[in-house]
Write a structure and sequence with these properties.
alpha/beta, seven-stranded parallel sheet, 8 helices, 7 strands, globular, binds nicotinamide-adenine-dinucleotide
Amino acid sequence: MPDVRAAPDFRTAIVTGSTSGIGLAVARSLAEAGHAVMMNGFGDAGQIEADRSAIEAETGSPVAYHGADMSDPAQIADLVAATTARFGQIDIVVNNAGIQTVALIEEFPVDRYNLIMAINMSAAWHLCRATFGGMKARGWGRVINVASAHGLVASPYKSAYVMAKHAVVGLTKTLALEGAEHGVTANAICPGYVLTPLVQAQIPETAKARGITEDAVIRDVLLAAQPTKSFVQPGQIGALAAFLCTPAASQITGTALPVDGGWTAH
Ligand code: NAD
Protein backbone atom coordinates (compact mmCIF):
# COMPACT_ATOMS: atom_id res chain seq x y z
CA MET A 1 0.00 0.00 0.00
CA PRO A 2 1.47 3.44 -0.89
CA ASP A 3 2.33 5.80 1.96
CA VAL A 4 -0.34 8.43 1.30
CA ARG A 5 1.09 10.68 3.99
CA ALA A 6 4.12 11.20 1.76
CA ALA A 7 1.96 12.56 -1.07
CA PRO A 8 2.37 16.36 -1.44
CA ASP A 9 -1.38 16.99 -1.55
CA PHE A 10 -2.28 14.73 1.37
CA ARG A 11 -4.94 16.40 3.51
CA THR A 12 -7.33 15.27 6.19
CA ALA A 13 -11.08 15.71 5.83
CA ILE A 14 -14.28 15.45 7.82
CA VAL A 15 -17.35 14.73 5.70
CA THR A 16 -20.53 14.98 7.74
CA GLY A 17 -23.46 12.80 6.77
CA SER A 18 -21.26 10.51 4.70
CA THR A 19 -22.94 7.20 5.42
CA SER A 20 -25.34 7.70 2.51
CA GLY A 21 -26.00 9.51 -0.75
CA ILE A 22 -23.97 12.59 -1.60
CA GLY A 23 -21.77 12.50 1.49
CA LEU A 24 -20.74 8.90 0.83
CA ALA A 25 -19.77 9.87 -2.72
CA VAL A 26 -17.81 12.88 -1.45
CA ALA A 27 -15.97 10.71 1.09
CA ARG A 28 -15.06 8.30 -1.69
CA SER A 29 -13.89 11.08 -4.05
CA LEU A 30 -11.72 12.70 -1.38
CA ALA A 31 -10.19 9.33 -0.48
CA GLU A 32 -9.56 8.65 -4.18
CA ALA A 33 -7.74 12.00 -4.30
CA GLY A 34 -5.43 10.73 -1.57
CA HIS A 35 -6.94 12.49 1.42
CA ALA A 36 -7.62 10.89 4.80
CA VAL A 37 -11.34 10.94 5.56
CA MET A 38 -13.39 10.90 8.74
CA MET A 39 -16.84 9.66 7.82
CA ASN A 40 -19.88 10.57 9.89
CA GLY A 41 -23.58 9.83 9.88
CA PHE A 42 -26.24 7.41 10.99
CA GLY A 43 -27.16 3.98 9.73
CA ASP A 44 -26.63 0.27 10.15
CA ALA A 45 -23.28 -0.29 11.88
CA GLY A 46 -22.38 -3.25 9.68
CA GLN A 47 -23.14 -1.34 6.48
CA ILE A 48 -21.16 1.70 7.67
CA GLU A 49 -18.13 -0.47 8.46
CA ALA A 50 -18.46 -2.23 5.10
CA ASP A 51 -18.50 1.13 3.27
CA ARG A 52 -15.63 2.53 5.35
CA SER A 53 -13.38 -0.48 4.87
CA ALA A 54 -14.22 -0.74 1.15
CA ILE A 55 -13.26 2.90 0.49
CA GLU A 56 -10.09 2.49 2.52
CA ALA A 57 -9.12 -0.72 0.71
CA GLU A 58 -9.97 0.58 -2.77
CA THR A 59 -8.25 3.97 -2.40
CA GLY A 60 -5.37 3.26 -0.02
CA SER A 61 -6.32 6.36 1.98
CA PRO A 62 -7.02 6.13 5.71
CA VAL A 63 -10.76 6.26 6.38
CA ALA A 64 -12.30 6.40 9.85
CA TYR A 65 -15.82 6.84 11.18
CA HIS A 66 -17.39 8.84 14.00
CA GLY A 67 -21.11 8.72 14.73
CA ALA A 68 -21.62 12.26 16.08
CA ASP A 69 -25.18 13.52 15.97
CA MET A 70 -24.64 16.80 14.15
CA SER A 71 -27.63 18.37 15.87
CA ASP A 72 -25.66 18.32 19.15
CA PRO A 73 -22.76 20.80 19.53
CA ALA A 74 -21.12 18.64 22.22
CA GLN A 75 -20.99 15.69 19.83
CA ILE A 76 -19.59 17.95 17.09
CA ALA A 77 -16.79 18.91 19.50
CA ASP A 78 -16.16 15.21 20.10
CA LEU A 79 -16.01 14.59 16.33
CA VAL A 80 -13.35 17.30 16.02
CA ALA A 81 -11.36 15.92 18.94
CA ALA A 82 -11.52 12.36 17.61
CA THR A 83 -10.51 13.41 14.09
CA THR A 84 -7.60 15.46 15.41
CA ALA A 85 -6.49 12.53 17.56
CA ARG A 86 -6.70 10.14 14.60
CA PHE A 87 -5.26 12.29 11.78
CA GLY A 88 -3.36 15.07 13.59
CA GLN A 89 -5.21 17.99 12.03
CA ILE A 90 -8.31 18.87 10.00
CA ASP A 91 -7.72 20.53 6.62
CA ILE A 92 -11.00 19.96 4.78
CA VAL A 93 -14.48 20.25 6.23
CA VAL A 94 -17.44 19.13 4.15
CA ASN A 95 -20.70 20.13 5.79
CA ASN A 96 -23.13 17.77 4.15
CA ALA A 97 -25.39 16.19 6.78
CA GLY A 98 -28.94 17.19 6.11
CA ILE A 99 -32.57 16.27 6.50
CA GLN A 100 -35.77 17.42 4.86
CA THR A 101 -39.43 17.84 5.74
CA VAL A 102 -42.05 18.87 3.18
CA ALA A 103 -45.13 20.57 4.64
CA LEU A 104 -47.21 23.71 4.47
CA ILE A 105 -45.72 26.28 6.85
CA GLU A 106 -48.96 26.47 8.86
CA GLU A 107 -48.74 22.70 9.43
CA PHE A 108 -44.95 22.48 9.75
CA PRO A 109 -44.01 20.53 12.92
CA VAL A 110 -41.93 22.76 15.19
CA ASP A 111 -39.71 19.89 16.28
CA ARG A 112 -38.82 19.21 12.62
CA TYR A 113 -38.12 22.93 12.06
CA ASN A 114 -35.73 22.92 15.02
CA LEU A 115 -33.99 19.75 13.83
CA ILE A 116 -33.59 21.01 10.25
CA MET A 117 -32.05 24.24 11.48
CA ALA A 118 -29.74 22.36 13.87
CA ILE A 119 -28.48 19.79 11.34
CA ASN A 120 -28.62 21.67 8.03
CA MET A 121 -27.49 25.07 9.31
CA SER A 122 -26.09 25.32 12.86
CA ALA A 123 -23.94 22.19 12.58
CA ALA A 124 -21.95 23.81 9.77
CA TRP A 125 -21.33 26.87 11.91
CA HIS A 126 -20.24 24.81 14.94
CA LEU A 127 -17.92 22.58 12.89
CA CYS A 128 -16.34 25.56 11.12
CA ARG A 129 -15.99 27.42 14.41
CA ALA A 130 -13.99 24.50 15.79
CA THR A 131 -11.75 23.93 12.74
CA PHE A 132 -11.30 27.25 10.92
CA GLY A 133 -8.62 28.65 13.23
CA GLY A 134 -6.39 25.63 12.66
CA MET A 135 -6.76 25.93 8.88
CA LYS A 136 -5.84 29.63 9.00
CA ALA A 137 -2.86 28.99 11.27
CA ARG A 138 -1.50 26.33 8.89
CA GLY A 139 -2.17 28.50 5.82
CA TRP A 140 -4.34 25.98 4.00
CA GLY A 141 -7.94 24.89 4.33
CA ARG A 142 -11.10 24.05 2.46
CA VAL A 143 -14.66 24.49 3.65
CA ILE A 144 -17.18 22.87 1.33
CA ASN A 145 -20.80 23.32 2.26
CA VAL A 146 -23.24 21.06 0.50
CA ALA A 147 -26.08 23.56 0.26
CA SER A 148 -28.66 23.09 -2.48
CA ALA A 149 -30.36 24.77 -5.40
CA HIS A 150 -32.64 25.66 -2.49
CA GLY A 151 -29.80 27.83 -1.19
CA LEU A 152 -30.39 30.01 -4.26
CA VAL A 153 -34.08 29.69 -5.09
CA ALA A 154 -37.15 28.45 -3.25
CA SER A 155 -39.82 25.82 -3.65
CA PRO A 156 -43.09 25.75 -1.73
CA TYR A 157 -43.54 23.53 1.33
CA LYS A 158 -39.83 23.58 2.21
CA SER A 159 -39.70 26.69 4.40
CA ALA A 160 -37.21 25.40 6.97
CA TYR A 161 -34.95 23.70 4.42
CA VAL A 162 -34.84 26.70 2.07
CA MET A 163 -34.16 29.00 5.02
CA ALA A 164 -31.34 26.80 6.33
CA LYS A 165 -29.73 26.39 2.90
CA HIS A 166 -29.80 30.13 2.18
CA ALA A 167 -28.14 30.64 5.57
CA VAL A 168 -25.41 28.15 4.66
CA VAL A 169 -24.66 30.15 1.50
CA GLY A 170 -24.34 33.23 3.72
CA LEU A 171 -21.96 31.41 6.05
CA THR A 172 -19.92 30.35 3.03
CA LYS A 173 -19.46 33.96 1.90
CA THR A 174 -18.42 35.13 5.36
CA LEU A 175 -15.86 32.34 5.76
CA ALA A 176 -14.47 33.07 2.29
CA LEU A 177 -13.76 36.62 3.40
CA GLU A 178 -12.28 35.53 6.74
CA GLY A 179 -10.05 32.90 5.11
CA ALA A 180 -9.05 34.80 1.98
CA GLU A 181 -5.61 35.90 3.13
CA HIS A 182 -4.86 32.65 4.91
CA GLY A 183 -5.07 30.09 2.10
CA VAL A 184 -8.50 28.96 3.24
CA THR A 185 -11.35 28.85 0.73
CA ALA A 186 -15.03 28.34 1.40
CA ASN A 187 -17.54 27.35 -1.22
CA ALA A 188 -21.05 25.99 -1.35
CA ILE A 189 -22.07 23.29 -3.78
CA CYS A 190 -25.70 23.66 -4.76
CA PRO A 191 -27.05 20.39 -6.16
CA GLY A 192 -30.34 20.08 -7.92
CA TYR A 193 -32.17 16.81 -7.47
CA VAL A 194 -29.91 13.87 -6.72
CA LEU A 195 -31.66 10.53 -6.33
CA THR A 196 -30.62 9.64 -2.80
CA PRO A 197 -32.60 8.31 0.19
CA LEU A 198 -33.32 11.94 1.19
CA VAL A 199 -35.14 12.57 -2.09
CA GLN A 200 -36.80 9.17 -2.20
CA ALA A 201 -38.27 9.81 1.25
CA GLN A 202 -39.85 13.12 0.26
CA ILE A 203 -41.67 11.73 -2.79
CA PRO A 204 -44.62 10.39 -0.75
CA GLU A 205 -44.64 13.52 1.43
CA THR A 206 -44.76 15.76 -1.63
CA ALA A 207 -47.48 13.60 -3.19
CA LYS A 208 -49.55 14.09 -0.03
CA ALA A 209 -48.88 17.83 0.22
CA ARG A 210 -49.81 18.41 -3.43
CA GLY A 211 -52.53 15.76 -3.71
CA ILE A 212 -50.89 14.01 -6.68
CA THR A 213 -49.41 10.56 -7.38
CA GLU A 214 -45.79 9.68 -6.65
CA ASP A 215 -45.07 9.25 -10.39
CA ALA A 216 -46.40 12.75 -10.94
CA VAL A 217 -44.10 14.07 -8.20
CA ILE A 218 -41.05 12.66 -10.01
CA ARG A 219 -42.16 13.90 -13.44
CA ASP A 220 -43.97 17.16 -12.69
CA VAL A 221 -42.34 18.38 -9.46
CA LEU A 222 -38.80 17.05 -9.13
CA LEU A 223 -37.56 16.79 -12.69
CA ALA A 224 -39.88 19.55 -13.91
CA ALA A 225 -37.51 21.98 -12.21
CA GLN A 226 -34.45 20.42 -13.81
CA PRO A 227 -34.13 21.22 -17.53
CA THR A 228 -31.89 18.20 -18.22
CA LYS A 229 -34.79 16.02 -16.98
CA SER A 230 -32.36 13.71 -15.29
CA PHE A 231 -31.09 13.39 -11.73
CA VAL A 232 -27.63 14.62 -10.73
CA GLN A 233 -25.35 11.72 -9.78
CA PRO A 234 -23.79 11.70 -6.29
CA GLY A 235 -20.37 11.08 -7.83
CA GLN A 236 -20.65 14.35 -9.74
CA ILE A 237 -20.86 16.21 -6.42
CA GLY A 238 -17.95 14.17 -5.10
CA ALA A 239 -15.83 15.06 -8.12
CA LEU A 240 -16.50 18.78 -7.67
CA ALA A 241 -15.65 18.60 -3.96
CA ALA A 242 -12.36 16.89 -4.79
CA PHE A 243 -11.60 19.52 -7.44
CA LEU A 244 -12.21 22.32 -4.91
CA CYS A 245 -9.38 20.80 -2.85
CA THR A 246 -6.84 21.00 -5.69
CA PRO A 247 -4.39 23.86 -6.28
CA ALA A 248 -6.33 24.71 -9.46
CA ALA A 249 -9.27 25.80 -7.29
CA SER A 250 -7.36 28.05 -4.91
CA GLN A 251 -8.93 31.23 -6.34
CA ILE A 252 -12.46 29.85 -6.22
CA THR A 253 -13.91 31.09 -2.96
CA GLY A 254 -17.15 32.54 -1.66
CA THR A 255 -19.15 30.91 -4.43
CA ALA A 256 -22.38 28.95 -4.53
CA LEU A 257 -21.81 26.51 -7.38
CA PRO A 258 -24.96 25.04 -8.91
CA VAL A 259 -24.82 21.41 -10.08
CA ASP A 260 -28.45 21.35 -11.00
CA GLY A 261 -28.98 20.47 -14.66
CA GLY A 262 -29.84 24.10 -15.40
CA TRP A 263 -32.52 24.48 -12.71
CA THR A 264 -31.37 27.88 -11.43
CA ALA A 265 -30.95 29.19 -15.00
CA HIS A 266 -34.73 29.66 -15.09
P1 NAD B 1 -29.15 11.20 2.52
O1 NAD B 1 -30.37 11.06 3.33
O2 NAD B 1 -28.81 10.12 1.53
O3 NAD B 1 -27.88 11.41 3.45
C1 NAD B 1 -27.94 12.26 4.57
C2 NAD B 1 -26.77 11.95 5.46
O4 NAD B 1 -26.86 12.79 6.61
C3 NAD B 1 -26.77 10.50 5.97
O5 NAD B 1 -25.45 10.04 6.05
C4 NAD B 1 -27.38 10.65 7.37
O6 NAD B 1 -27.01 9.60 8.26
C5 NAD B 1 -26.77 11.97 7.77
N1 NAD B 1 -27.45 12.59 8.90
C6 NAD B 1 -28.77 12.90 9.03
N2 NAD B 1 -28.99 13.43 10.24
C7 NAD B 1 -27.78 13.48 10.86
C8 NAD B 1 -27.35 13.92 12.13
N3 NAD B 1 -28.21 14.44 13.03
N4 NAD B 1 -26.05 13.80 12.44
C9 NAD B 1 -25.16 13.27 11.57
N5 NAD B 1 -25.51 12.84 10.35
C10 NAD B 1 -26.81 12.95 10.01
O7 NAD B 1 -29.28 12.60 1.80
P2 NAD B 1 -28.48 13.29 0.58
O8 NAD B 1 -29.48 13.52 -0.49
O9 NAD B 1 -27.24 12.58 0.29
O10 NAD B 1 -28.19 14.72 1.23
C11 NAD B 1 -26.91 15.15 1.61
C12 NAD B 1 -26.90 16.67 1.60
O11 NAD B 1 -27.14 17.11 0.27
C13 NAD B 1 -27.96 17.31 2.48
O12 NAD B 1 -27.43 18.43 3.13
C14 NAD B 1 -29.02 17.71 1.48
O13 NAD B 1 -29.77 18.80 1.93
C15 NAD B 1 -28.15 18.08 0.29
N6 NAD B 1 -28.86 18.08 -0.99
C16 NAD B 1 -29.44 16.94 -1.47
C17 NAD B 1 -30.09 16.99 -2.69
C18 NAD B 1 -30.74 15.79 -3.28
O14 NAD B 1 -31.46 15.93 -4.28
N7 NAD B 1 -30.53 14.59 -2.77
C19 NAD B 1 -30.15 18.19 -3.40
C20 NAD B 1 -29.55 19.32 -2.87
C21 NAD B 1 -28.90 19.25 -1.66
